[in-house]
Every structure is written in structure tokens, then in C-alpha cells.
């Protein structure tokens, strides 16, 4: 009798209409995946969120499947302050010192490599950083890829066994970023106006050659 009940219950569950799960399209994720330099200081980024971002690296491409990248999460306030003091955010906006007070990233993922930088490692790095940021956007977060920092100083500050090659700042975005379509030959420098961060992008039709 128990077996018959379980069998019927299973059939009921299988035949029941399933609720549609709305998942954002890739285009939506890409549009939301901007380089943010201001974050909500009241939002706490949790370790589980950083772990979910790092986990995508087990499912993405890697040159020769070497998988040389390693990751260090930073959520501790004291360690975060060390990282912030060694990176540059928004070097093109020379009139500003970013991030502005109270808008600092709430967490970081420091990316290291088990070998020295080479073409394959850097390709892997780009794939990894973009994939982790898309995961962050899916979770309602945002981030910024940082390569402008003192590698040796950061390695010492965090007592890392490997040299860091990139830093991913992570948090809840607290600024508006808009894309501006431009043409080849136009300035590609990002800029700010009335509190909005504008990023020029070449029109898709002009990206093709031949």
C-alpha cells in the first residue's frame, strides 16, 4: 500500500504544471555587467556569493585545460582596506579619487596564477573575470576588473603564495552607468556627467572588417 501511494504521489508531482522560472537573457546580463566604481556600503557581500562566482571557473574554457588560475576571497574589513589602498579605480577620471568615501567595494576576489603571465594565462584570465562578473550580475551584484595595482605589495599584504594578476572588486552597485554608441575614430574615454557614468562603445556595424 505504501509503495502504491508513493508511486501515485510521484506521478502527481510529475504531471503537475511547473511554474516558469524567469531567467535573464545573456543580452540583459551583458548590459547590466558594467564596470562599477561606487557601491552600497550598507550591503554586505557574503562568502557564499563569492564562492558561487569562483565556482564558474570549474565550468569554463581554459587553454590546454591547464586551469592555472587560483582565487583568494577578501571580505574581512581590515584586509579589504589593504586591498583598496593598493588598487586604482577609474584612472581615466584624473579629477576624481575613486571610489568616493562611503562607496567602497564590500569584497574582492584576488586572482593569481600558478605560472607566470603568458598569452594563454591572460586569455584564461579574461574568460574567468567576465564569467565571474556575469554570475555576480545574475545575483544582483556588480563589480570592477582591476589590473592597475602593485602586484608584489598586494601579495605581501595578503600573504599570498602566488603572485596576483588581477583583482575583482565586488559589491551592490550604487551608480548609474550608460553606454553611448560612437563611431570609429571617436574618443573612447569614459566620462561622467550629472552623476551618470558614460561609456562609449563602437557601433556593432563598425566592428566588422571586410
What features would you highlight for this structure?
single chain, 210 residues, alpha+beta, 7 strands, 31% helix
Please give a structural write-up.
This protein is of the alpha+beta class and 210 residues long. The protein is 31% helix and 20% strand. It is built from 6 helices and 7 strands; from the N terminus they run αααβαβαβαββββ. The protein has a 4-stranded antiparallel β-sheet, with helices on both faces. The protein has a 3-stranded mixed β-sheet with strand order 5-7-6, with no helix packed on it. A hairpin with a 2-residue loop joins β6 and β7 (196-202). α3 (47-55) packs across α5 (119-138). The longest helix has 20 residues, at 119-138. The radius of gyration is 21 Å and the shape is globular. The mean pLDDT is 91.
Q: What does this entry show, briefly?
A:
It is built from 6 helices and 7 strands. By secondary structure, the protein is an alpha+beta fold. The mean pLDDT is 91.
Number of helices: 6
The class by helix and strand makeup works out as: alpha+beta
**Low-confidence segments:** none
The total strand number stands at 7
Q: Roughly how many Å is the radius of gyration?
A: 21 Å
Inertia-based shape: globular
What's the overall average pLDDT, rounded?
91
Specify the helix fraction band.
Answer: 25-40%
Describe the secondary-structure layout:
Layout: H1 2-15, H2 26-32, H3 47-55, E1 69-74, H4 77-84, E2 107-113, H5 119-138, E3 142-146, H6 151-157, E4 164-171, E5 176-182, E6 191-193, E7 196-202
Amino acid at each position: 500500500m505504501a509503495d502504491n501511494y508513493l508511486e501515485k504521489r510521484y506521478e502527481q508531482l510529475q504531471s503537475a504544471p511547473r511554474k516558469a522560472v524567469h531567467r535573464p537573457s545573456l543580452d540583459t546580463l551583458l548590459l547590466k555587467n558594467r564596470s562599477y566604481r561606487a557601491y552600497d556600503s550598507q550591503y554586505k557581500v557574503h562568502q557564499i556569493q563569492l564562492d558561487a562566482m569562483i565556482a564558474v571557473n570549474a565550468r569554463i574554457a581554459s587553454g590546454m585545460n591547464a586551469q592555472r588560475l587560483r582565487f583568494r576571497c577578501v571580505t574581512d574589513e581590515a584586509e579589504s582596506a589593504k586591498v583598496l589602498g593598493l588598487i586604482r579605480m577609474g584612472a581615466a577620471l584624473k579629477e576624481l579619487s575613486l571610489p568616493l568615501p562611503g562607496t567602497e567595494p564590500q569584497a574582492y576576489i584576488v586572482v593569481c596564477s600558478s605560472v607566470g603571465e603568458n598569452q594563454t594565462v591572460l586569455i584564461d584570465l579574461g574568460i574567468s573575470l567576465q564569467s565571474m562578473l556575469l554570475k555576480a550580475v545574475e545575483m544582483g551584484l556588480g563589480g570592477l576588473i582591476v589590473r592597475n595595482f602593485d602586484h608584489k605589495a598586494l601579495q605581501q599584504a595578503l600573504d599570498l603564495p602566488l603572485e596576483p594578476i588581477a583583482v575583482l572588486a565586488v559589491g551592490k552597485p550604487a551608480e548609474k552607468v550608460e553606454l553611448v554608441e560612437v563611431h570609429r575614430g571617436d574618443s573612447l574615454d569614459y566620462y561622467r556627467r550629472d552623476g551618470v557614468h558614460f561609456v562609449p562603445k563602437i557601433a556593432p556595424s563598425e566592428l566588422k572588417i571586410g
